[in-house]
Design a protein that fits this description.
Helices cover about 40% and strands about 20% of the residues. The chain has about 375 residues and is α/β, with parallel strands linked by helices. The structure holds glutamic acid (GLU). Glutamic acid (GLU) binds near residues 18, 19, 55, 139 and 154.
C-alpha cells in the first residue's frame, strides 16, 4: 500500500527524540531543539496530537556539571539526570511557548506501567493534556529508576507510551536514515511487515551495519508496536521538515507496519508484561481459544511451568511448545496443580464453592 494511504488515517503520534538529536558535545543544543520544536509545531498546527519522548537528561546534566558521562557512577548518573531534566524541559518550554504551545513533563518508570491502575492513571493524565492542547514531554524517571524498574532505553519507553495513549504512529527520530538490510545498501528498507530473526541479527548481531545497541532496541520497539497493531517509522532527525513530510506520505525512513488488528487497551497492557510461568493446554483448549474465542478452563490444562500466584501473568502454549498467548491467571500454581484437567463440579469438591469458572477469562487473555 502506498505510504500516503497508510499515513492518511493517523491522528495521534508519539515522536521519540534520541540524545544525539538534542545534544552536541557541549550539552543541550539549542539549535537541535529548535529544529525538533519547529517540526512538531508544524504538525500540531495541522491538527495532529503529539506526545514527545525525549532523551538527553543525563547528557545535559553531566555537561552542565562538566563531567564526562562515561566516567559517572550509577548514583551520579541518577543525580545528574535530575539536573539535566530541568535544563532539557526549560529548552523545550521556552521554544514551544514562543510558538504559543504549552508543554508538560511526565517522568515514568517501568513500575508505572506494570500495574494496571498506574497504567490507567498515566493514560488518563496524557489524555487530559492532549485534549487541552498541551504537549506532554516524557522521559524515563532516571533519578529513581533502579534496574528492576527501568525501561532501559527510551526506544522501549516510547513503545510503552504509544500503547498508553493508543497512538496510531510512533516516529523514532535518530541519527540514521532508517533500517538498512545490508551494510552497503544506498537506501534504507522502505517497509518492514515482519520482524524476522535475520532482521534482529542484522540490527544487533555480528555484521550489523550500526554496531550494537542503537538499532536493536529500535527493532525491539517495532516488534511491540506491530504486536499492538500500531505503526512505527525510523527516520533521521536532521531531515528537513521531517515530520511534516512523513505526514504528507513521503517515503522517508523505514515504516514498520504489521498485519495485526489494533488491540484494546487492556490487551496492549498485557502484551507488554513479563510472564511468571506457562500453562500447557491440550489441543481441544487451544482450538476453543483460537477458533471459539473462549476463556481458558481448568479442564483443558495438562501442565504448568514456573511458580506463579493468582493475578500473575502467564503464557499459554500447546504441548509442542507453540506459544498461543498470555493472560492474567485466576489461580496460583499450587491450586492449579490440584484442579488441572478437571471440570467445575470436581473443582468445587476440591476447592469449595468459591471458585473462578475460568482459569483465564477471555477479557484477560491476549492471543498471539
Ligand atoms: N533517559 C535517558 C536520558 O534522558 C536516556 C535514555 C535513552 O536515550 O535511551 O538521559
Amino acid at each position: 500500500m502506498p505510504r500516503k494511504s497508510v499515513i492518511k488515517h493517523v491522528k495521534r503520534i508519539v515522536v521519540k527524540v534520541g540524545s544525539s538529536s538534542v545534544t552536541d558535545g557541549r550539552g543541550i543544543s539549542g539549535g537541535k531543539i529548535s529544529k525538533i520544536v519547529g517540526d512538531v509545531a508544524d504538525i500540531i498546527k495541522r491538527g495532529y496530537q503529539v506526545v514527545i519522548v525525549s532523551s538527553g537528561a543525563i547528557a545535559a546534566g553531566s555537561a552542565s556539571l562538566k563531567k564526562n558521562v562515561k566516567s559517572l557512577t550509577i548514583p551520579e548518573k541518577q543525580a545528574f539526570a535530575a539536573v539535566g531534566q530541568t535544563i532539557l524541559m526549560n529548552e523545550y518550554r521556552n521554544k514551544f511557548s514562543r510558538r504559543g504551545l504549552p508543554v508538560a513533563q511526565i517522568l515514568l518508570t517501568e513500575d508505572d506501567v506494570r500495574h494496571r491502575t498506574r497504567f490507567t492513571n498515566a493514560s488518563h493524565t496524557l489524555e487530559t493534556l492532549l485534549h487541552r492542547g498541551i504537549i506532554p514531554i516524557v522521559n524515563e524517571n532516571d533519578s529513581v529508576a533502579v534496574n528492576e524498574i527501568k525501561f532501559g532505553d527510551n526506544d522501549l519507553l516510547s513503545a510503552h507510551v504509544t500503547s498508553l495513549i493508543n497512538a496510531d504512529l510512533l516516529i523514532l527520530l535518530s541519527d540514521v536514515n532508517g533500517f538498512y538490510r545490508y551494510r552497503d545498501d544506498p537506501e534504507p528498507v522502505e517497509e518492514v511487515e515482519n520482524i524476522t530473526d535475520s532482521i534482529v541479527e542484522r540490527a544487533g548481531g555480528t555484521g550489523s551495519a550500526f554496531g550494537s545497541g542503537g538499532m536493536l532496541s529500535k527493532i525491539r520497539a517495532a516488534e511491540l508496536i506491530m504486536r499492538f497493531g500500531q505503526m512505527m517509522i525510523i527516520a533521521n532527525a536532521k531531515e528537513k521538515n521531517v515530520l511534516a513530510r512523513i505526514m504528507n506520505g513521503e517515503r522517508i525512513g523505514t515504516l514498520f507496519r504489521g498485519r495485526n488488528k489494533p488491540l484494546s487497551g487492556k490487551k496492549r497492557w498485557l502484551a507488554l508484561r513479563k510472564t511468571s510461568g506457562v500453562l500447557i493446554l491440550d489441543d481441544g483448549a487451544v482450538q476453543a481459544i483460537r477458533v471459539g474465542k473462549k476463556s481458558l478452563l481448568a479442564s483443558g490444562i495438562t501442565g504448568m511451568i514456573g511458580d506463579f500466584d493468582m493475578g500473575d501473568i502467564v503464557e499459554i502454549s500447546d504441548d509442542r511448545n507453540n506459544k498461543i498467548g498470555k493472560g492474567i491467571v485466576n489461580y496460583a500454581c499450587a491450586e492449579l496443580d490440584k484442579i488441572k484437567g478437571k471440570k467445575s463440579a470436581e473443582i468445587r469438591k476440591i476447592l469449595g464453592e468459591n471458585i473462578f469458572e475460568e482459569v483465564i477469562h477471555r477479557d484477560d487473555l491476549m492471543v498471539y
